[in-house]
Amino acid sequence: MDYEQPSDLFKALAHPTRLHILDLLRAGEMCVCHIEAALDKRQAYISQQLMLLREAGLVEARRDGLKVYYRLNDGRVSKMLDIALGSRPVMGVQPIDGCPCPVCSPVVIPVG
Fold first, then answer.
1. pTM above 0.70?
2. Low-confidence ranges of the chain (pLDDT < 50)
């Protein structure tokens, strides 16, 4: 049996901020600025943690213009988070005051 891959998974999960990011992403895809606002941490710190999660294969990213969006990439993560943190209803990404992302500050197009 190969124990390297599971070991890498546990290493990636063994950090409070990375666990918090993964817990947030259970709600759905979100941009880096939304994760920053939710965790009240600097962008560089969040990006560093996301890079480690991406390298571990737990999240994947997509770019849309200037925004980078992340989502869970491994179904095992949600199951492990349910065990470690408890399951919770999926409510989707919730708006956060002060976050400039499209979820929190939707662009209103005037009609007429």
1. yes
2. none
